[in-house]
């Protein structure tokens, strides 16, 4: 009887261990030790509540560095999304910080890509980067959760993701393109009315066989260097067909 | 009174002869007889000599009268009076006319004294295209011109069509060109925070040699250089030794801009061509270049005097004369057409509204 009890206990233990191993990781993984225990519990609670509300996964992973040297934070975020944070029925997203390079990246899966547009990712970036720069990590992660909640709620209410209200850009672009094409077409039509013009060259009269380059001498003189600051806006370099998202520096 | 001009008349019926474009013959339009250029030349050689002598004699007489006339010396030098061999009328021409037609009887008339010595052209490019071809080419030129006023086409009457041999200087030259260019290459790369563009500048020397054949420059003040440039090129393979026979039935002028004065235009075109050719050797290694300096050294050169065929068509629209010119050999027609401003504004307005609407719709779909 004692032996049977031992076997059952072992089976239950093994099953529990296996189940735990298979279970999805928590929504906050702070291996860079940016948060204290209390903050960790509080943030996990907040994100879990949002996940339950929208039936999605909203995760945060902070790392001291990337597991593989030279790996892009965006690629790693996509990997995490595919392997671990994929249990949200309506979509999954993860914010990854690389403290070594001070990169942040929000990756979204296909479903979440339809809910949060590039403009949404930009909005999240704008709301978290100031706090990240000030090393107010709890505030940054809380803002991330809050903005994600707003964007998902907007989608649920309107059936489409929040996009930038860019009517002025559209109108100005249309007017600009209209003016340019009209000027070009007008110039072309007017030019076609005359084919008179003085010739500046005599290439038809050059005996091509007689042309010889007899001497050449090339001398390097100097180099001009122009530096242009890179845009600090959100980069979507790791986005592909299966993933959306974007990131930047902090 | 002795004739001071010569009309090429049919030896059989006495009707005026005309050079038939695209052939080597002179044809009588009345009896249909055809004569080779060389035959006509022999036939009328003596007559030309006599006419030239009569013209010279008249010049002497004319000079003696100078003191008592009202004409200034410049006016006398510019105007010449000839007697039409057909109707006897006096034809007044400017000093450059080689061939014309009598304004009274329409007879094709040669002014042989103008072909003498250095004034005689070396070559002539005969007409290949006819008056009919010129009219057809003009109609073709109107096609597809969206801004052409409808009334211009509807009421269009070509007021004047004249075939004319225009004097050209043809320059042959071997040139050595020393050119100095400033060329550059660029290299672009990113570091952590910046995009860096490095532009490397090089001083490039190129020395090249080439031969140019028959670079044409018109030797007539009356002819617009831009028009003459635009009807180029002529096919010089069809160029013939000069014979006055080719001129009959057409107008012809002798040059009034001499070779010396025409040479700078040929030089400039040759220089630009050489710079393009030498510059093209830089395009392989460099992204761009600019010319810093250039020296052209001309080697042996020759200049030929040739007459080239041009059809000149003119029409009037709203009080303004529009002139078109066609290369009498190749049929290339050039000219400037009037622009209907109402059409221009309508097309531009329509295009503006159309493009704006389409771009707005597309952007709204993508970004909205």
Q: How would you spell out the order of helices and strands of chain B?
A: EEEHHEEEEEHHEEHEEHEEEH
Helix content class of chain B: 25-40%
In terms of quaternary structure, the protein is heterodimer
Widest sheet, order of strands of chain A: 1-2-3-4-6
Task: Give the topology.
The complex is a heterodimer of chains A (250) and B (368).
Chain A: H1 2-22, E1 28-30, H2 37-54, E2 57-63, H3 73-83, E3 92-98, E4 103-109, H4 110-115, H5 118-133, H6 137-158, H7 167-191, E5 206-229, E6 243-249
Helix pairs in contact in A: 2-6, 5-6
Chain B: E1 17-19, E2 25-28, E3 34-36, H1 37-65, H2 73-78, E4 79-83, E5 90-94, E6 97-101, E7 108-110, E8 123-124, H3 131-142, H4 150-154, E9 160-190, E10 194-218, H5 225-230, E11 240-241, E12 251-253, H6 259-280, E13 288-317, E14 320-327, E15 333-335, H7 341-367
Overview of the structural elements:
The complex is a heterodimer of chains A (250) and B (368). With 250 residues, chain A is α/β, with parallel strands linked by helices. Chain A has a domain at 26-164 and 236-249: Roll (Diaminopimelate Epimerase, Chain A, domain 1), CATH 3.10.310. Chain A has helices at 2-22, 37-54, 73-83, 110-115, 118-133, 137-158, 167-191, and strands spanning 28-30, 57-63, 92-98, 103-109, 206-229, 243-249. Chain A has a five-stranded mixed sheet, with helices on both faces. In chain A, α2 (37-54) packs parallel to α6 (137-158) and α5 (118-133) packs antiparallel against α6 (137-158). The model of chain A is unreliable at 9-22 (pLDDT under 50). Chain B is of the alpha+beta class and 368 residues long. Chain B folds into three domains: 17-120, no CATH class; 132-337, no CATH class; 338-368. Helix content of chain B is 29%, strand content 36%. Chain B is built from seven helices and 15 strands. In chain B, strands 6, 7, 8, 9, 10, 11, 12, 13, 14 and 15 form a ten-stranded mixed sheet that branches. In chain B, strands 1-2-3 form a three-stranded antiparallel sheet. In chain B, strands 4-5 form a two-stranded antiparallel ribbon. At the A-B interface, α7 and β5 of A face β9, β10, α5, α6 and α7 of B.
């Amino acid at each position: 009887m004692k032996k049977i009890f031992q076997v059952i206990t072992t089976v239950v233990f093994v099953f529990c261990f296996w189940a735990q191993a298979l279970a999805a990781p928590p929504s906050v993984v702070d291996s860079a030790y940016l948060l204290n225990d209390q903050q960790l519990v509080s943030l996990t609670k907040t994100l879990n509540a949002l996940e339950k509300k929208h039936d999605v996964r909203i995760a945060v992973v902070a790392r001291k560095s990337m597991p593989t040297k030279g790996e892009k934070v965006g690629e790693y975020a996509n990997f995490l999304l595919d392997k671990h944070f994929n249990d949200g029925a309506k979509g999954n997203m993860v914010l990854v910080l690389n403290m070594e390079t001070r990169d942040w990246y929000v990756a979204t899966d296909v479903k979440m890509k339809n809910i949060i547009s590039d403009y949404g990712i930009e909005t999240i970036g704008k709301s978290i980067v100031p706090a990240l720069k000030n090393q107010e990590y709890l505030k940054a992660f809380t803002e991330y959760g809050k903005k994600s909640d707003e964007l998902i709620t907007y989608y649920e209410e309107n059936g489409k993701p929040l996009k930038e209200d860019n009517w002025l850009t559209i109108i100005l672009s249309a007017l600009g393109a209209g003016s340019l094409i009209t000027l070009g077409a007008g110039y072309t039509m007017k030019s076609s009315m005359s084919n008179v013009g003085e010739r500046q060259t005599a290439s038809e009269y050059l005996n091509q066989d007689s042309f010889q380059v007899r001497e050449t001498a090339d001398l390097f003189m100097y180099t001009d260097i122009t530096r242009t600051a890179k845009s600090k806006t959100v980069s979507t370099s790791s986005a592909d067909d299966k993933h959306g998202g974007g990131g930047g520096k902090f | 009174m002795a004739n001071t001009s010569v009309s090429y008349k049919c030896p059989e019926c006495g009707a005026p002869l005309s050079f038939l474009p695209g052939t080597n013959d002179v044809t009588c339009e009345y009896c249909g007889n055809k004569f080779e250029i060389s035959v006509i030349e022999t036939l009328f050689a003596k007559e030309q000599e006599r006419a030239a002598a009569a013209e010279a004699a008249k010049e002497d007489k004319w000079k003696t009268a100078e003191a008592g006339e009202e004409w200034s010396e410049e006016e006398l030098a510019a105007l010449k009076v000839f007697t039409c061999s057909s109707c006897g009328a006096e034809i007044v021409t400017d000093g450059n006319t080689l061939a014309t037609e009598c304004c009274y009887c329409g007879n094709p008339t040669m002014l042989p004294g103008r072909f003498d010595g250095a004034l005689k052209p070396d070559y002539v490019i005969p007409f290949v295209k006819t008056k009919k071809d010129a009219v057809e080419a003009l109609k073709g030129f109107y096609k597809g011109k969206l801004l052409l006023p409808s009334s211009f086409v509807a009421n269009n009457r070509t007021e004047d069509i004249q075939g004319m041999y225009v004097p050209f200087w043809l320059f042959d030259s071997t040139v050595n060109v020393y050119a100095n260019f400033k060329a550059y290459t660029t290299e672009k790369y990113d570091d952590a925070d910046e995009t860096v563009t490095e532009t490397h500048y090089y001083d490039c020397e190129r020395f090249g040699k080439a031969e140019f054949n028959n670079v044409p420059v018109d030797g007539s003040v009356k002819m617009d250089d831009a028009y003459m440039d635009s009807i180029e090129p002529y096919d010089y393979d069809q160029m013939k030794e000069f014979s006055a026979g080719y001129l009959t039935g057409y107008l012809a002028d002798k040059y009034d801009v001499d070779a010396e004065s025409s040479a700078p235009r040929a030089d400039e075109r040759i220089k630009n061509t050489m710079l393009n050719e030498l510059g093209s050797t830089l395009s392989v290694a460099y992204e761009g270049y600019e010319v810093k300096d250039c020296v052209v050294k001309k080697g042996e050169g020759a200049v030929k005097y040739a007459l080239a065929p041009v059809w000149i068509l003119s029409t009037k629209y709203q009080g303004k004369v529009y002139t078109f010119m066609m290369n009498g050999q190749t049929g290339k027609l050039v000219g400037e057409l009037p622009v209907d401003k109402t059409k221009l504004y309508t097309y531009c307005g329509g295009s503006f509204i159309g493009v704006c609407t389409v771009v707005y719709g597309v952007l709204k779909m993508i970004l909205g």
